[in-house]
Each structure stands twice: as C-alpha cells, then as structure tokens.
Amino acid sequence: MIGGMYKEIVYDNMKNVVSKFIGKNEKKLNYRLLEFANYYGFSINVTNCFSGNEKGHVEGSVKIIRKYALISILPKIQKNS
Known about the structure:
This protein is α+β, with helices and mostly antiparallel strands. It has helices at about 30-40, 55-80; strands spanning about 10, 20, 25-30, 45. The strands form 2 sheets. The protein has a two-stranded parallel sheet with strand order 1-4. A two-stranded antiparallel ribbon has the order 2-3.
C-alpha cells in the first residue's frame, strides 16, 4: 500500500465490475469502476472464471465471518422482529 491506497485491487467477476464477457478470457470492465481506479491510481485485477484458487483466501474469510459473527447476531435480530 502506498500513501493509503493499494497498487492493485483484485475483484471477482461481479456484474458491477465486469460489464460484458468477450470471448473466453477477455472482459469489458465497468467504465465507472475504471474512472474510480484512474482517479485513485490503482489497477484492477479480475479473477479468471472457474478459478477458485485465485480467490480462496477471500472465500475462506467470508466463511469465517458468517460462521462466527453473523450467526451469533442472527438470533438477536429475529428475536427483536
């Protein structure tokens, strides 16, 4: 991280990141995201489709948060509804 901003940010193939898939490996990125990245000076790295090894750490982190944080909050939310 340089000056409070990462050099590169890795995204999954979400609709708000990838506007269109062109062929097998090429993607058209959302123009608003490109403007955002240019303004803040970071590059965009989009993971390849069906390559779980590229995003395994993130997926594992989400699983941990769901297991320990959200599950302990859910009964309290349902009780107050």
